[in-house]
Hints:
One of its GO terms (cellular component) is outer membrane-bounded periplasmic space. This protein is α/β, with parallel strands linked by helices and 335 residues long. 44% of the residues lie in helices and 19% in strands.
Amino acid sequence: MKLKTTLLALAAVGVLAGVAGCAEKKPEKTRIAMVVKNLGNGFFDAAHTGADEAAKQLGDVEVIYTGPTTPSAEGQIEIINSLISQKVDAIVISANDPNALVPIAKKAMQRGIKVVSFDSGLAPEGRQMQLNPSNAQLIGEKQIQMAADEIGGAGEIAILSASAQATNQNIWIGVMKKVLEKPEYSKIKLVATVYGDDQSDKSYREAIGLLRSHPDLKAIIAPTTVGIVAASKAVADEHLVGKVYVTGLGLPSEMAGHVKSGAVKEFAIWNPIDLGYAATYAADQFVKGKVEAKPGASVSVGRLGSVTLDANREAALGPPFTYNADNVDKFAKLF
Length: 335
Ligand code: RAM
């Protein structure tokens, strides 16, 4: 009897060990979490589409799409903590702050999780690589040039940005300010920079504030897809179409109406689907040990070819594309 009990007990231990063994077994698919600045932003929805495309093509990748409801570093820190407990294989993040997220990103990397920032970057010590949509200089120059064209090269302009800590917008604003120092832009005066936090209502209120406190304003540059829509709506609601122009970075699908109303003559953007696809594809390359995170490394980005990491382990995709009344409808069907 005693022997039987012992055997049963041993068998139970064996079963339990087996169960525990199963629970610990790594899932067969590579799990890549895409952490965006915030949910509900059409730009990131398009990046998600690209991430899913990469996963489908790679075959053994599962994408976990996540982000806070409002674009804050705190919200992203909480999410990364939970992704670390879930033992995901990689985190692909558009960061709400270049530095505040570094400690948690480092913790993830110490646990073997690969971290790729895309769109809005993390400081180099917090990630394997940063994938920029395009060259920052080009993005900044393009926006000043579009604003200058819209207002005939002279007058007051203002910037309506995303959140005050956003890495990408702050880099572009830095470039724009430098470009404005060029002699050809000497008649253009930047009178204010405000932040709508990539929230439609706050961006709208900030745009209205700009229009009312600067009666001579000629253009608003919004280097954010959320801000540019809000600014266009504000200009229309204040009956200032034809007097104040809006430009910046927008999604053709969200901007077509505002181009037709005349609030916007021209705006730019890169392909957000490609950006999400490439970032996810690159993350998988790190997970599978196909590339090392070091300057000069060539990282495959699937159907888009490959990118080379610079001294800061950053790389960029193609130049931004310009949209106006002639082509906006065609691209509105895509993103
Ligand atoms: C918003 C976000 C994103 C930026 C685009 C242009 O959707 O701020 O980070 O790249 O605009």
